Amino acid sequence: MKIAYLYYDFLNLYGESGNIKIIDNILKANKIKHTILYLSLDDELDFTTYDLVYIASGTEENIKIALNHLKKYQKDIKDYINSGKFMLVTGNSLDMFGQKIDDVEGLKVFAYEVTKGKRKMEEVYIDGKIINHKILGFINNNSYIDKLKYPLFKDEGIKYNNFYGTYIIGPILVRNPYFVKYFLNNLTGKKLKYDLKLEIKAYNEFIKNFKEEVHE
User: Fold this and answer.
1) Fewest CB atoms less than 10 Å from the CB: which of 13, 49, 140, 166?
2) Are 95 and 59 in contact (CB under 8 A)?
3) CA-based end-to-end distance of the chain
4) Domain of 55?
């Protein structure tokens, strides 16, 4: 299995590298052979060889730099997604896959346009939709999608084939042990073994505290 971690060196806000670390740890624990490629602007990208592509969040300036680099791979990215290969995109990197970010042309993979508005900084506790557990995390951005055609979670994100895009950071796979199980079982086509006691404990504690705050 070949995993491409794109722009690891400058799209790396909020500890989002944690998503790659938990994937790496679980695959190693299950003795699944895999390679993680740390790729950036000086590298040639070959989407035909990747089983998973991961892109994390960054500053608005760095998102534009990454977008400019990815535009020469626009057809390759569309083919990759349409073929059912896996991609995980978190935070404001999701902006790149729409038609436009304000007046900047996007990758045009999906029909939505992104506009910038008032910054949202809030804890997330929403219906998981594709799993029978809530999704936890944090949103810290000022991006707004105009058309949400293929939501990943309830009223949030994008899921199309095996493209998983979400504004939720945290990192999302670390904070959501049931979602990481769903994601990696689908990625590998296997029912993997997991040791997520600490992650489940933290998940349950957050839910407990959240419910207590709501009822105060």
Assistant:
1) 49
2) no
3) 48
4) 2-215
How would you label 170-184 residue by residue, b for 16+ Cβ within 10 Å and e otherwise? Answer: bbbbbbbbbbbbbbb
Give the position of tokens 């936890």: 136
pTM, full prediction: 0.95
State the average pLDDT over residues 110-124.
Answer: 92
Domain total in the chain = 1
Q: Is the pLDDT of residue 215 over 70?
A: no
Say what the pLDDT of residue 10 is.
97
Do 177 and 101 form a contact (C-beta atoms < 8 A)? no
State the pairing for strand pair 100-101/113-127. parallel
What's the CATH code of the domain at 118? 3.40.50.880
Query: Residue 130: how many CB atoms within 10 A of its CB?
Result: 17
